[in-house]
Amino acid sequence: MTRVVLVDDHQMFRSGVKAELGASVEIVGEAGDVDEAIEVIKTTGPDVVLLDVHLPGGGGVEVLRQVLPSDTKFLALSVSDAAEDVIGVVRGGARGYVTKTISGDELTNAIGRVAEGDAVFSPRLAGFVLDAFAAADVPSIDPELDQLTQREREVLRLIARGYAYKEIAKELFISVKTVETHVSSVLRKLQLSNRHELSRWAAARRLV
Amino acid sequence: MRPWPGTCDHLFVPETPSGESTDLAPPRLERRADRRLVGGVCTGLAEHLGLEVLVVRLAFAVLVSAGVGVVAYVALWLLVPQRKEPQTRRELGQLFAYGALVLGLSLFTWGAGALNWAVWPVVAGGIGVGIIWQQADPERRRWWVRNSQAMWLRSIIGILLVAAGLIAFLAQKVRPGQAGQVLLGSGVVLAGVAVVLAPWLLRFWRDLDTERRERIRSQERAEVAAHVHDSVLHTLTLIQRNSHDPREVQRLARAQERDLRAWLYEPKADAEQHLAAAVRKAAAEVEDHHGLPIEVVCVGDCPLDDRLGAMLQAAREAMVNAAKYADGEPGDQGRTSSLSVYAEVAGDEISIFVRDRGKGFDLDAVPEDRMGLRESIIGRMERNGGKAEIRTAPGEGTEVRLEMRRESK
């Protein structure tokens, strides 16, 4: 069973998540701020950390900075859809980003995917990535990293339209595994690209 | 989709900038009003560096005799803010320090030889001004400065007096050939006055800046408080009153969340003018009216025109349809979740997708007279030069795709 650590500074929220996840995962630890989180992650070595973006002591990004590189995967959770929050944690090394209004089943599903090394994109994150990579005529330093392929774009558009991976696979006549590969590749570009929009957000929040 | 209990987050907690001073950091560089001899620079510096005051003072004495120290001291005195604490009474030590300063300056001018009788009054006057300045407490200074009308009047009168005096002096005493020299002399005197006034102006400006920032901050706080009161507190009251009706509670919570989110994160955009804002607004209205959560994602944006207005109407109709028909009867346990709306602007091509995960239907079995689908969506799009496509099957949910080209200018 997937071993999970919950990091959020609201006790009420943590118990809510625990109740929703039920027996589908094993919660091995909880933390309410950055220092606690690092401590708990180091001692328990979980598969997945559910990481709140806004945390006392430097935010989720600080936890990522101190723990990575590691075998533990991170799934970021937030109430905010602000682009700089999304870009911050994803560039910081989180494998996915979901908002806190996600249902319990969807969250269990997302945890499973992150544990297997896949990326989890919410429709909003997909929309944001499309926006950031939109202008095709921007001169790019590294075309391989700075642009999305046609296929990746299609996959992201379907995610933004509310399609599940299975439905995307059916729509594009490809396998679910291929969809996952495309999404992971987008995640990699998001983390490594120096595209102007991405760097600007990162720089504005001193994330680079 | 059921939101978790307690999905509130620290919406109002600003991220603390890292590098905030801790207990271990040295105290800030501030001039001390107490325990000072002249301007409190040495005391403050000693505290900041963790050295003995005496050492710093001796170092400055040496530097002063070398000449550099004067400049350094004056610069520090001007730039380092004074610590906020009650000023203590003038001590004998300070008097002694001023005395030494006067003595040193007069010796210096004596040593320089000529002009010593002429320099004396200037030295005395300068030091007098300095002492008066030092004595005036900040509140009093601020009061003087605040009455800006009076200040303007004073300044104008002062300038007029100076000008009048100069002209009278020049007219009476000066032979034509000496005018240049006299003007130079006056220039020097005025420069001296400017030097005396400079720190005053500098402080004035700094005080004003601090005050303005304080005012802006308190205004913002008041605005936040007002907003929280008008929206959040009211909603919470309504939720308590409607606690027997889960749908109403969810609707209230969603509406409040949307409102707060828009207020916190989204730039103010005019829903009458721009597509993305208009789509969000339409979705919000449908959500409010039908109580079905709608997730809106917009990529790109463009100004609205007539065709896009029609497209928006069609999209809105699609949302209403989905909210009405996608699910079982209202109140059913199996009522699905959510509606996804995706609007994309790619160059002149605009697409809007409205997708639900409801029960779907058989398109061919839709009765001819169902106006919503045929007229309000497909017909409206075609009349305006766009197209609409509906993809659905029983059990598969429904997706309405709308496409339109922007009017070419």
Please provide a written account of the structure:
The complex is a heterodimer of chains A (208) and B (409). Chain A is α/β, with parallel strands linked by helices and 208 residues long. In chain A, α2 (34-44) packs parallel to α3 and α9 (165-172) crosses α10. Chain A has 2 domains: 1-117, Response regulator (Rossmann fold, 3-Layer(aba) Sandwich); 119-208, Winged helix-like DNA-binding domain superfamily/Winged helix DNA-binding domain (Arc Repressor Mutant, subunit A, Orthogonal Bundle). Chain A has helices spanning 11-21, 34-44, 59-67, 83-92, 104-115, 123-132, 143-146, 150-160, 165-172, 176-192, 196-204, and strands at 3-7, 26-31, 48-52, 73-78, 96-99, 120-121. In chain A, β1 (3-7), α1 and β2 (26-31) form a beta-alpha-beta unit. Helices cover 54% and strands 13% of the residues of chain A. Chain A starts with a strand and ends with a helix. Chain B is of the alpha+beta class and 409 residues long. Chain B has a domain at 268-405: 2-Layer Sandwich (Heat Shock Protein 90). Chain B is 59% helix and 9% strand. Chain B contains 12 helices and 5 strands. A 5-stranded mixed sheet of chain B has the order 1-2-3-5-4. In chain B, a hairpin with a 3-residue loop joins β4 and β5 (397-405). Classes of the chains: A alpha/beta (208), B alpha+beta (409). The interface between A and B is large, with 37 and 34 residues.
